[in-house]
Write a structure and sequence with these properties.
heterodimer, A: alpha+beta, 2 domains, 11% strand, B: Rna Polymerase Sigma Factor, Chain: A, Arc Repressor Mutant, subunit A, globular
Chain lengths: 245, 186
């Protein structure tokens, strides 16, 4: 037997639970190895010391203290005990599923058209003013974009409403971003002749609205959402221009 | 063996006999208090810890599946409490304030010895307890359960949910580690 094999047997040796072969092998090794013999003596002395430790009597007020703690259960403890009494358990997948459903429900409620504030003109009024609305998306979110055909108040039948897009933010230079009021409107105007552009855009520039030319006949107007009423009023004041578009 | 009446006491307690709970506490309080003392080394803290353990027993007795396994269940619950309290106190630096000379860590002395003998005995006991306390948590645990609580290998195996062979090898390593810590004293 090697020294490294001897020490792992010390506890079984002390418990007298070694097999006959192990016992003989260990005894032979201890007789011939002074180092392991010393280790074994120290092991025995250690056990004697540990086993000589006396247990301490518990304090007399241990049991009354338990009853005092039981009597002073807080509201939280009572609630927790109630939950525990329901024997309610939840697996991790079930908890994840509930969390996902809750998040989804929250998202749907947030985007629901119900109970939205009516700070804007009615849909019919806005349609009469020539605005093509994104369906049931009020209030308009930041950087929302709409296509407007400036044709004198008639809805542009051939224009498809543009949903929210990154196009507007790409068109606005980054260094201008801090000057924009938020939330902002982005309105596309197309089918407008040169004379109309001059008249209409001059007034828009007077109001510090930003005008971006996308193509020769397509413009992006950027203005604060609070000035949407001014935009409609402006369109209404230039019907002749609109009729020519 | 007084512990043989534990399942009957558990059954009575579950049926609403609160005196049975008191008798269970009386039956196990010495062991649980000393187990707690082995972790926190301070009498007031050990008392508070032991009380919390029995409060949990009172509240969670319905979770015990087999009344005959009350002892193992109690020790599992107690070990969880002790580990948590030990970690909490260690984070607060509780143990760094204690030393070998701290009278709070003293032992009950046997009567009939001379003051010199008692002083030496007290010091030895304190050294051994300090050495046990300085072991790694897993080593300390198995020493406390086997050498101080005097539980059988089967009981320790059930409490720690480990095979008996693993318990024995862990115990042997823990005892060797303890021997090395006490080497200068032996």
């Amino acid at each position: 037997m090697q020294c490294t094999e001897a020490q792992p047997l010390f506890t079984d040796f002390a418990d007298n639970t070694l097999s006959r072969e192990e016992l003989h092998a260990l005894a032979d090794h201890l007789l011939g190895c002074p180092t392991c013999a010393l280790e074994w003596r120290e092991f025995q002395q250690t056990l004697n010391l540990v086993h000589s430790l006396e247990t301490q009597a518990p304090p007399a007020d241990l049991l009354p203290g338990i009853h005092a703690k039981l009597a002073h259960r807080g509201i939280f403890d009572r609630a927790w005990a109630l939950v525990e009494s329901l024997n309610f358990s939840l697996s991790i997948p079930a908890a994840a599923a509930i969390f996902t459903i809750a998040m989804l429900a929250g998202f749907l409620l947030k985007t629901s058209p119900l109970e939205q504030p009516t700070i804007f003109p009615s849909r019919s009024a806005r349609l009469q003013q020539g605005e093509v609305l994104t369906p049931r998306r009020l209030p308009i979110a930041q950087n929302a974009m709409f296509a407007v055909s400036h044709n004198g108040g008639q809805p542009g039948g051939d224009l498809v409403p543009l949903t929210r897009t990154a196009l507007a933010t790409q068109l606005v230079p980054e260094n201008d971003a801090p000057h924009l009021l938020s939330p902002d409107m982005h309105v596309l105007i197309e089918h407008i002749d040169h004379d109309s552009q001059v008249v209409l855009f001059r007034e828009m520039l007077d109001q510090n609205w930003q005008i971006h030319r996308i193509t020769t006949n397509l413009f992006l107007i950027h203005f604060p959402q609070a000035e949407l009423g001014n935009f409609h009023e402006l369109l209404g004041r230039h019907p002749a221009t609109a009729n020519r578009s | 063996m007084p512990y043989q009446e534990a399942p009957e006491l558990v059954r009575a307690f579950r049926q609403g006999d609160h005196q049975a709970f008191n008798r269970l506490v009386t039956l196990y309080q010495r062991k649980i208090y000393n187990l707690a003392l082995g972790y926190v080394k301070q009498e007031d803290e050990a008392k508070d810890l032991a009380q919390d353990i029995f409060v949990t027993v009172y509240r969670q007795i319905d979770k015990l599946k087999e009344e005959s396994k009350f002892g193992a269940w109690l020790y599992q619950l107690a070990l969880n409490h002790c580990r948590n309290r030990y970690q909490k106190l260690r984070r607060r630096g509780f143990f760094s304030n204690q030393s070998l000379d701290d009278p709070e860590t003293g032992l009950n002395l046997s009567s009939g010895a001379t003051p010199e003998k008692e002083y030496e005995r007290e010091n030895t006991a304190r050294l051994v307890r300090e050495a046990i306390a300085s072991l790694a948590p897993a080593e300390k645990e198995v020493i406390l359960l086997r050498d101080l609580q005097e539980l059988s290998y089967e009981e320790i195996s059930e409490i720690l949910d480990l095979p008996m062979g693993t318990v024995k090898s862990k115990l042997n390593r823990a005892r060797l580690a303890l021997k090395n810590r006490l080497k200068h004293y032996l």
